[in-house]
Amino acid sequence: MSIEILVNASSQEARAAVVENGVLQEVFLERASRRGLTGNIYKGKVSRVLPGMQAAFIEIGLERTAFLHASDIFDPRHADTGIEPPRNDNIRELVAEGSEILVQVVKDPLGTKGARLTTYITLPSRYLVYMPHGRGIGISARIEVETERARLREALAGHGSDGDGFIVRTAAEDAPAEALRADMLYLRKLWEVVRIDGLKARAGVLVHADLPLRLRALRDLMTAEVDRVLVDHPAAFSEMQEFARTFMPEALSRIELYEEVRPVFDLHHVEEEIQRSLDRKVALKSGGYLIIDQTEAMTTIDVNTGAFVGHRNLEETIFRTNLEASVAIARQLRLRNLGGIIIIDFIDMSEAEHRKQVLQSLEKALAGDHAKTSISSVSPLGLVEMTRKRTRESLEHLLCAPCPTCEGRGFLKTPETMCNEVFREIVRQSRQFASRELLILAHQDVVDRLLDDESATLAELEHQVGRPIRLQVEALYGVDQYDVVLV
Asked: Does 227 score more than 60 pLDDT?
């Protein structure tokens, strides 16, 4: 498999794309005016404690207060064992209004919701994740070879302390023991700096920020399978080389400065793919298609055969379409960064073996996803229910805003509907208020219909209310906006 990471950097925006075998799989975006908060550590102040929700709202210097649940609060009373019993504490025993607390963002603000916080601080490096309040050593589940898992555990054994813990990341596979221990030493020193800075800082202040996107791309995405990293900005290239020289020298030769005239995101049609990822409809090679609808509550994906007629029988056609769709869905989830609850409506299959194979295909396609996913079996209604961990805004929410005309509804009332609303409003106004005439302000399409298809009704209404009705086009009005003015 050929894997490339493309980095497009400027002073206003940074983007990183993961391309596998010439196909875009994942896009990361960070703007200078709106950097992601996940991983940042703040000195927070408890503004409200809500016992009914077992949660608290924390001021961390953002526009909206952040949310901290009782299950995300480290209880120092259990620090000696490192094992916390099932939580039945009242949250008022853990935090108090007005108190200050060191917190980390685990989920960016999404829509109208504030950031999600935890006091279980984690600090990632190239090979490890440090947990100051954790205990023991964990190994990434993606490292599957048992001998390698044992080697990694042995490499770190005896170098831990009684009061912290580490998780070995996937990138640590085949890494030398010296590099792992160097990461342990670095992370412990970093935590000491963060802890002291946190004690000194006032409430609402950022204590520690995660790396910028161009460096996170190296830390989190650079594996032995990555063939090269192309960077189109000389300053970013120098910074990434310096980072690699310090923390990952084995990757230094694979970081290249892209100096061609053609933009780096034009390679492999990445720019076009990003634009297509904003469309509702996703075409499949067979002629079938997906319809993806993202709402605040969940994302729904509908699979359709479209123009695909197959070659054998209907059940085989449906099965082949669903198999192709399962791979496409996994890619779209990563590419669009869709998270939360996801409902997939595959085309109904009568054979149980086909349903099983489609689910297995979906699970296999999601195996390479960096975000945690959980798939349930097919529901009684024939729907596949799954969740995907959401820590940052989706690509659509990052790049787009709700339509000012429809206000995000995705539809508008028809001119015919608006004409009927205008007629009802004319009757209402004429019965309540006296006037010489009535002036109707509306969109061009509505006025055209009133003068054409609805002209007879308008004339009849004019006779009914006993006063003239005048029409005026308002260029700034949407189709579903109008005013009835008494003159």
From this structure: yes
Band (175; pLDDT cuts 50, 70, 90): confident
CA torsion angle 451 453 456 459 (round to 10):
-30
Per-residue pLDDT at 78 exceeds 80 = no
Alpha-helix runs per DSSP H in 47-171: 146-156
pLDDT of 144: 86
In this prediction, residues 323-335 reach a mean pLDDT of: 96
Helix segments in 400-475, DSSP class H:
415-432, 444-451, 455-465
Please check the confidence at residue 473 and state whether its pLDDT lies above 70: yes
The H or E element containing residue 167 is: strand 165-168
Q: What's the one-letter identity of residue 298? A: M
> Rounded distance, CA 466 to CA 461, Å?
8
413: phi then psi, degrees, rounded to nearest 5: -65, 145
One-character DSSP codes across 256-307: EE---SS-GGGGGGHHHHHHHTTSSEEE-TTS-EEEEEE-SSEEEEEEE-TT
Per mean pLDDT, which range of 89-103, 163-177, 304-318, 346-360 is the poorest?
A: 304-318
Region for residue 101 given its phi and psi (left: phi exceeds 0; alpha: psi -120 to 50; beta: otherwise): beta
- The span from the CA of 44 to the CA of 59, in Å, is 5
Is residue 19 helix, strand or coil? strand
